[in-house]
């Protein structure tokens, strides 16, 4: 086709409706930030008090057992009817075990509120990004250490570090992205009951930058839900997720002029891929195979 037949790209000025919608969104962001802040403080108190209450319930349980033993020693067989009556009342109320269940449910609910508020604040009040050179492998390793215990219970881990370069950007924000992707992989593996699961964290140099992949052999994403995966408040984790993690992660990566996408893993599971632009030093430097050969060895560390 002749290039002259192509229509030029025309950028239209924002319409009044678009400007009105943008203004509403800005006002909504301010409102959300204020409400989230008001919720955040009492939720912090609730979580702290639930932790204290959990300790008190444990002490109460030990005390009741101690009183029972003391009553038996003091009254002998005569204490049996009194102990049975007290235990029947406790059982009628749900038993001592119900305390643990109620506290766990309350703590999980409060923690979910805290996580939603944190994510809303992240959306409503985007902070200024740092601009520093980041060693991707160091950042990935520090992130993996944060979830080591949870990961060892769900899957084996392979590190396949092949990138020789560094990235430029905000270490904390990129760490948030990698933590989200790795946590999602852990949850997908934990939900999969078919044999031993595996997570692979892989890096590669590309012509334009650095590619980071988080691969898991878990439950995967149903085909009909793939189009929704980056939609705000959409989650496949039932009560465990806020539905904002991937939405925020993609926004962070786009702020770094990179991309975040995913594909199905052959045999089951998912592979999420992050691409980040290279630093100027990497573009000018030597990235020959000899310089990075030692990094091309997959490092397998069993859980």
In short:
This protein has 303 residues and is of the alpha+beta class. The chain has helices at 16-75, 80-92, 97-124, 136-146, 148-152, 171-190, 245-255, 280-284, 289-292; strands at 132-134, 156-161, 167-169, 198-205, 209-216, 259-264, 270-277, 298-301. It is 52% helix and 15% strand.
What are the defining features of this structure?
single chain; 303 residues; 6-stranded mixed beta sheet; two-stranded antiparallel sheet; disordered C terminus
Whole-number average pLDDT?
78
What's the CATH architecture of the largest domain? 2-Layer Sandwich
Rg measurement, Å: 27 Å
Q: List how many beta strands DSSP finds.
A: 8
Number of domains: 2
Which structural class is indicated by helix and strand composition? alpha+beta
Strand order across the largest sheet: 6-7-5-4-2-8
Terminal CA distance reads 57 Å
State the helical fraction.
40-55%
CATH superfamily of the largest domain: Histidine kinase-like ATPase, C-terminal domain
Strand content: 15-25%
The biggest sheet, with number of strands, parallel, antiparallel or mixed sense and barrel status, is: 6 strands, mixed
* CATH class call of the largest domain: Alpha Beta
Low-confidence parts, pLDDT < 50 over ≥5 residues?
A: 1-14, 282-303
CATH fold type of the largest domain: Heat Shock Protein 90
Report on the structure:
This protein has about 300 residues and is of the alpha+beta class. It folds into two domains: about 20-125; about 130-300, Heat Shock Protein 90, CATH 3.30.565.10. Helix content is about 50%, strand content about 15%. The protein is built from nine helices and eight strands. The protein has helices spanning about 15-75, 80-90, 95-125, 135-145, 150, 170-190, 245-255, 280-285, 290, and strands at about 130-135, 155-160, 165-170, 200-205, 210-215, 260-265, 270-275, 300. The strands form two sheets. It has a six-stranded mixed β-sheet. A two-stranded antiparallel sheet has the order 1-3. A hairpin with a 5-residue loop joins strand 6 and strand 7 (about 270-275). The longest helix has about 60 residues, at about 15-75. The radius of gyration is 27 Å and the shape is elongated.
